[in-house]
């Protein structure tokens, strides 16, 4: 799979993603398998110097926080691209994990289970209707 950057991310509805294993109001009709997004990032010399200066004042190290947020967002969006490629309606059981590969280089993975769902009737919670 080619590199996925934020601007290439699909327009996958965020309300159809969850850390839970069900999606309230929907019935899972097919499990399509695990989807994942992997990003490996390193800290730049300039970012490390800036963060080192921030540590002198204490508190939140915003340069590292921003790097972590961007990395997680990229991993999440890459996972959503895989879900779209699998023709999923939703992703359930989403988790993140991170591993330091070497000093200053970290792998972040976002993974979940791609599923097809049908919306339940809001009043009767019965006969599902097609989402897409």
3D architecture notes:
The chain contains 2 helices and 4 strands. A hairpin with a 2-residue loop joins strand 2 and strand 3 (105-119). The mean pLDDT is 81. The chain has helices at residues 45-57, 62-85; strands at 26-42, 90-102, 105-119, 129-130. The chain is of the alpha+beta class and 132 residues long.
Write a brief structural summary.
The protein is an alpha+beta fold and 132 residues long. The chain has helices at residues 45-57, 62-85; strands at residues 26-42, 90-102, 105-119, 129-130. Strands 1, 2, 3 and 4 form a four-stranded antiparallel beta sheet that branches.
Largest sheet: 4 strands, antiparallel
- Work out the helix count: 2
Structural class, by secondary structure, is alpha+beta
Parts with pLDDT < 50 across at least 5 consecutive residues: none
Percent in strands:
35-45%
Helix content: 25-40%
The number of E-state strands comes to: 4
Average predicted local confidence, pLDDT: 81
Q: Overall 3D geometry?
A: elongated
Order of helices and strands: EHHEEE
- Give the end-to-end Cα distance, rounded to a whole number of Å: 25 Å
Global Rg: 18 Å
């Amino acid at each position: 799979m080619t590199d996925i950057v934020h601007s290439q991310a699909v327009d996958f509805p965020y309300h159809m993603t969850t850390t839970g294993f069900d999606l309230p109001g929907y019935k899972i009709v097919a499990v399509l398998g695990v989807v994942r997004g992997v990003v490996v990032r390193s800290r730049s010399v300039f970012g490390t110097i800036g963060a080192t200066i921030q540590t002198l004042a204490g508190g939140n190290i915003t340069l590292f926080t921003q790097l972590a947020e961007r990395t997680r967002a990229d991993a999440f969006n890459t996972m959503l691209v895989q879900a779209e490629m699998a023709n999923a309606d939703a992703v359930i059981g989403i988790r993140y994990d991170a591993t330091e590969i070497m000093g200053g280089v970290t792998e972040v993975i976002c993974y979940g289970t791609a599923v097809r769902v049908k919306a339940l009737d809001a009043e009767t919670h019965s006969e599902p209707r097609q989402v897409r």
